[in-house]
Amino acid sequence: MMINEHRAVIKYDPDIEMFRGEFINLSGGADFYASDVDGLKKQGELSLKVYLDACKEKGVEPYKSYSGRFNLRIPADLHAAAVTAASAQGKSLNEFIADAVAECV
């Protein structure tokens, strides 16, 4: 769900019979709850505003930063197959994986 140009992941919590939203790519937590879509949007906007205002007041960067590096653990046979496929395409393994991720996102 997009709320004020910020992406949130929504899941249903059967224990409380409500939907829970959580913004991603923030350096801290800003979650919200509601029983319907309109409520999620309203509560999400409120949660995001409170979070961003608190970050500004405390001088905290509200967004996560990413280095562009991460470790990936896959089965050895998949690793070998990826190296073979990358080589066949004239790419490094890194280029091959980056292209595959880009296609998926």
Can you describe what's shown?
- By secondary structure, the chain is α+β, with helices and mostly antiparallel strands.
- The protein has two domains: 57 residues; 39 residues, Orthogonal Bundle (Arc Repressor Mutant).
- It is built from three helices and four strands.
- It has a four-stranded antiparallel beta sheet, covered by helices on one side.
- The longest helix is centred in the middle third of the chain and has 22 residues.
Q: Can you count the helices?
A: 3
Low-confidence stretches: none
What's the count of strands?
A: 4
What is the mean predicted local confidence, pLDDT? 96
The helix content is 40-55%
Strand content: 15-25%
Keywords, please?
single chain, 105 residues, alpha+beta, Arc Repressor Mutant, 4-stranded antiparallel sheet, 3 helices, 4 strands, elongated
